[in-house]
Amino acid sequence: MSKQSVRKSVKRRRKPVPTMRFKLDGQWWRVRVERPPDKEKLDGLCHYKRRTIWLSPKAVEGDLLGIVTHELTHACIAPTDETHVRDLERLVCCVVRWAATRCNDGKISIGRHKAA
């Protein structure tokens, strides 16, 4: 038996999809790092009925802060005009980058902030 036929006969296992859960207004939500279903070109997608946020793996390598801010805004303030979501995304990213460069030598630290 050749090496190629052995490779073909072995089924490839799919890697588990990185997923986290969080609670928002008493409802459990999921964040999945995988291409949004049927939306190849989106960096992220917030689906209210499924209470799921998808983050494209390619996008995670890019502007993660902006994409997460954008999709979480959709989850928190539904339905939200896309213009307002983009404005909030831009402002959060600007403030975090500014604070990181002015106050923290360019490092962005992520702590365990608990809202009051």
Instruction: Report strand order across the widest sheet.
Output: 1-2-4-3
The stretches of 5 or more residues where confidence is low (pLDDT under 50) are none
Number of domains: 1
Helix count from the secondary structure assignment: 4
The main β sheet shows up as: 4 strands, mixed
What is the overall pLDDT average?
Answer: 77
**β-strand number:** 4
What structural category characterises the helix and strand content? Answer: alpha+beta
Please give the radius of gyration in angstroms.
19 Å
Helix-strand pattern? HEEEEHHH
Strand content: 15-25%
Principal-axes geometry comes out as globular
Write the layout of secondary structure elements.
Blueprint: H1 3-9, E1 19-24, E2 27-33, E3 44-47, E4 52-55, H2 57-60, H3 64-76, H4 82-103
Parallel strand pairs: 2-4
Antiparallel strand pairs: 1-2, 3-4
Helix pairs in contact: 3-4
Description:
This protein has 116 residues and is α+β, with helices and mostly antiparallel strands. The protein has one domain. It is built from four helices and four strands; from the N terminus they run αββββααα. It has a four-stranded mixed β-sheet with strand order 1-2-4-3. A hairpin with a 2-residue loop joins strand 1 and strand 2. The termini are far apart.
Short description:
The protein has 116 residues and is an alpha+beta fold. It contains 4 helices and 4 strands; from the N terminus they run αββββααα. Helix content is 40%, strand content 18%.
Features:
116 residues, four-stranded mixed sheet, alpha+beta
